[in-house]
Amino acid sequence: MSLVPLFVAIPLGMAFLIPLLGRWWKTSGEVLATGGTALLAVMSIMSIGMPAVVHHMGGWEPPYGIAMVSDGLSVLLLIAINIVGFLAVMFSLKYMRIYTGLPKYYSLFMLMVAGMNGVVLSGDLFNLFVFLEVASIASYALVAFGTDADELEAGFKYLILGSVASVMILFAIGTVYAVTGSLNMADVAREISIRFGGEMSPALLLAAAMFLMGFCLKAALVPFHAWLPDAHPSAPAPISAMLSGVVIKSLGVYAMCRVFFHVFGFSPELPSSLIIANGIIAFSVLSIVVGGLLAIGQWDFKRLLAYSSIGQIGYVTLGIGVGARVLASGGVRSLAALAILGGLFHLINHAAFKSLLFLSSGAIQHATGTRDMKQLGGVREKMPVTGLSTNLAALSIAGVPPFSGFWSKLVILVATLQAGLYAIGGIAIAMAFVTLAYYVKVQREVIFGEVKGAVEKAREVPAVMYVPLVILAVVCVGFGLLYPVIGYRILEPARDALLNGAEYIKLVLG
User: Fold this and answer.
1) What is the pLDDT of residues 215-241, one digit of tens each?
2) Which domain, by its residues, includes 160?
3) Cα–Cα distance list, 44 to 87, 337, 338, 423 (Å)
4) Is residue 343 within 8 Å of residue 413, measured between CB atoms?
5) Does residue 63 contact residue 94 with C-beta atoms inside 8 Å?
6) Is 1 domain-assigned?
7) What pLDDT is recorded for position 261?
8) Is residue 424 part of a domain?
9) Residue 358, SS3 per DSSP
């Protein structure tokens, strides 16, 4: 229990300490950010298998005090955020030397990590919003960190659309508070059950709609995705890895799951919950189709990866949406569990292979000076470690067995078809082949083939940059081969946490 607030306190303290020490100690940002994220990564791994706990800030018990809740779902996200964060900082040590103002970069990075950790540990809606804004504001600045025209434009677009999402979420929170008189998520769920018999009033339906749109915008689901294709390519490679790997998941997907499963709930007694579940599925299918079709025509490596993120996050929310629909329609609970497990499995897989792909694109750009795939080719000959890592990530995200992406997509597709959603399942299968097609294009144009002009003088990046690639490549292989161990230790507890809303209320309120 004593570790829970440290997930926020450590990065928050580092974020304020780095600029102060940076005046006299030029490498303070590199040392403190590396040490802080390494400690957080170790703490998140130590959390595996630990029982769910509630930390009462200041000794005030909920619903009157602020509670930080760590359950199976929180642990899954903490692992993704802090391990990817540590590897991104390690990659930054050499990559970010081309920029000035590095103490500001590392301070903003730690602020973003603190915000994401706070989101996944918050037990009340208002503090979830506060930490969401902390992470969002830091990410706006990091997208525009290079201060070129394209970067400033992308950062501004991200700021405007992110602020629209934040306003929707804040209005939704205010509406929930006006109706229930509480902000603690477990207490709000209890109040809805007592006052309305579980069914939502018109005001709560409005709040649910605003929550859904706000979280979909944070997760970059179509049609709320306009900020992502510019933000990801413009940001420095480590920030692109964080944005795609963990930011859209913690601020969008996680928050959506926590609010809709634990606050509003899905059950046959709640007709409105079926509407919400169908809405999630609809946005997911749109994202899978639009993201995949837009990715296949891209020649900018990072922009292709950005559109790919839109499509792949659609698979994550499709699994979760199918599970929610099964629960809302009174279907077999084991089928809902299978669908949610597939969504969460793809979430953690996507955090690994998409972070790896963005870091690989940064390594290739660092060595060649370009990310135009028409000018690349034969990278594996000049940069064997980077080439092999990129190849493994592409195979995993394309769903080639036995890599991790194949198994998570297979679980989602099986659950979708068993739920009777044959048309949606067919679309998801077809778009999986489209994903395979554009990653075959990546391998043909970038990894294999003849060495082209931009690659001729390239050399392998320094070890501090390729070690994170190797670690993530091992994860992409290991998650596929060692699923029984991984599933039992981190995925099944996360799935059970989502399914058992009553247990969440009991955990928080006693």
Assistant:
1) 999 999 999 988 998 888 888 999 999
2) 6-509
3) 14, 24, 25, 39
4) no
5) no
6) no
7) 93
8) yes
9) helix
Structure tokens at 190: 């209890």
Q: What is the rounded distance in angstroms from the CA atom of residue 47 to the CA atom of residue 80?
A: 12
Interval 2-55: pLDDT, tens: 789 999 999 999 999 999 887 888 888 899 999 999 999 999 999 988 888 898
Domain count, the chain: 1
pTM: 0.94
Q: Report the alpha-carbon distance of residue 119 to residue 253 in Å, rounded.
A: 11
Question: Which residues, in sequence order, are bridge partners of residue 56?
Answer: 67
Closest of 255, 263, 260 to residue 219, by C-alpha: 255
| SS3 state at 371 | coil
pLDDT tens digits along 340-362: 999 999 999 999 999 999 999 99
Q: Is position 183 within any domain?
A: yes
Sign of CA dihedral 443, 449, 451, 453: negative
Helix (H, G, I), strand (E, B) or coil at 69: strand
CA-CA-CA-CA torsion sign (118, 46, 479, 477):
positive
Percent over 90 (pLDDT), the chain: 58
Whether cis (ω within 30° of 0) applies to the bond prior to 384 is no
DSSP, residue by residue, 71-137: -HHHHHHHHHHHHHHHHHHHHHHHHGGGSS-HHHHHHHHHHHHHHHHHHHHB-BHHHHHHHHHHHHH
Looking at the domain assignment, is residue 374 inside a domain? yes
Nearest to 235 by CA among 112, 116, 362: 362
Q: Where are the alpha helices (DSSP H) in 332-481?
A: 333-368, 379-382, 384-397, 404-418, 422-442, 453-456, 463-481
> Contacts by 419-422 with C-beta closer than 8 Å and gap 24+?
419/322, 419/325, 419/326, 419/331, 419/335, 419/339, 421/281, 421/322, 421/325
**Residue-wise DSSP of 6-66:** HHHHHHHHHHHHHHHHHTT-TTHHHHHHHHHHHHHHHHHHHTTTPPPEEEEGGGPPTTTS-
Token pair of 492, please? 């099944």
User: What percent of the chain is helix, strand and coil (3-state, nearest 5)?
Assistant: 80, 5, 20
Beta-carbon contacts of 265 under 8 Å, excluding residues fewer than 6 positions away, are 189, 192, 198, 273, 501
Picking from 295, 305, 237, 250, the residue whose alpha carbon sits closest to that of residue 96 is: 237
Listed in sequence order, the residues at least 6 apart from 464 whose beta carbon sits closer than 8 Å to its beta carbon are 90, 91, 93, 94
Measured torsion, CA atoms of residues 206, 258, 81, 31, in degrees rounded to the nearest 10: 80
Phi and psi for 55 in degrees, rounded to 5?
Answer: -105, 125
Tokens for 110, please give them.
Answer: 């730690």
